[in-house]
Amino acid sequence: MATTHPTQPHNRLRVLFVDDEPSLQEVMRTELPRLGHEVTVCPNGTTALQAIQQNLYDVAILDIRMPDLTGIDVLQRLKQVSPDTEAIMMTGYASEDSMVQAMRLGACDYLRKPCKMSEIEAVLIRVQEKKRLKNKAAALESRLQAAEGTAALIGTSPAMQPVLQAIQQFAPTDARILITGETGTGKEVVARTLYEHSLRREMPFVPVNCGALSSTLVESQLFGHKKGSFTGADRDHKGFFEVANGGTLFLDELGELDMNIQVKLLRFLEAGEIQRLGDNQPIHVDVRVICATNRDLKKMVAEKQFREDLLYRLNMFQIHLPPLRERKADIPDLARHLLARAAKRPLEFVENLLPPETLRVLIDYHWQGNVRELKNAMEYAWIVSGGQPILPIHLPHDVRNPPPLTVRVPEPAVLPMIPPSGYAGNYPLPPAHHARTELPPSGPGSGTKTLADIEMEYILQVYSKNNFNKQVTAAELGVSLKTLYNKLHKYEEELRQRQAG
Fold first, then answer.
1. How many CB atoms are closer than 10 A to CB 426?
2. Model pLDDT for residues 395-441, shown as the tens digit of each residue
3. CA distance 40 to 60
4. Domain boundary at 90, 110, 129, which?
5. Structural domain for 252, as ranges
6. Are residues 176 and 251 in the same domain?
7. 12: CB partners within 8 A, 6+ apart
């Protein structure tokens, strides 16, 4: 027998071999694994039908003439249950009519008995190549969708370095990753980047927004269903897990999954199996799972809203994506990239369309909506500017004239006295300056507070927490150092006037 070369793991085929000859069955049990494939051997058509109900196969090699059910009978059922499985017919009694019938039912090739192992290997190589091209097309489609949807991962600021290092370390593995961060920070972009640098990059990438799944159909959407399992289920349906088989499944907004679905997800993580709705047979799938959330899952565990064992399974490694206000150094590059996407032009085209005064406004803004809000702002500015250089006036009103930060402050608001004007703010104040006072009431003897008063309370609270370091305080507040200086100076003047009055 010719020397064979085992295939790579991600090109491994799951083979169903159906033939009533014991000697041929034994050869397949030995030789197909040597080629690097998984094989299920069935001695007749009845056991073959049971096998295809329980598992997914990449290819089925079917003997046409068998004592109970023919290979044609098995082929018909196979194409109903798993249309993507490639079928190869094998017989020593082939007739032209039987071959034509098999091809019409979806068989891709046939072999005449007795056949050599090299002939079977050649057929499987053709199936591998067909599968590779199909997966490559699916991967290319997902990349095109990514190019039309979310932005690329951009950022070299200190806050982004841990993210970049984690991607470099974890991407080539099959490790499960939990991506955390505020809404709009680009968690799907991180997931896609992990996928693009993984060994599964030629296999499908299937993003799923758990918060957008129908509450009544979520199980079917994720795990699939059998025909007749509920009203309207007129055919077997593949869920997202089966669609992603061999590739990567990205579960965004993980905290939105209800407890029943969490149990099924946990089963997959533990056993590599899913179960279609309405079916009692497990299906093995090979999927890398990457998850993301903007919620505090540990808090949800404490409140009995999320399974603790599932969190441990999914949180093998965690990547935290910082908000845009903590990576302001990345804003110029991000803005140019997002502008190029909005304009549908190369990056070089927009290099000079964002002058320094516009970039300064963008950097000073607090971006509560993170990268998503910046993306919308760039699309707005491109339309308003008419394709000309974007000036501050072309930006959305809230970006040009940001409203005061609205932050809830615990009551009573007992806050530190502001340090004197000459204090540099890089070292703790002497003890005499740590006296505390309440913010003077606004309005003539009313004792009520305006929104500006509440904003200043919060600023002073953060300022005190950071030992009166202006630079650190400005970074935490998401404002420029100049803006912080101006607000503190304004408050100091108002305080002097109130004390003098």
1. 11
2. 999 999 887 655 444 443 334 444 444 444 443 333 333 333 344 44
3. 9
4. 129
5. 159-320
6. yes
7. 36, 37, 38
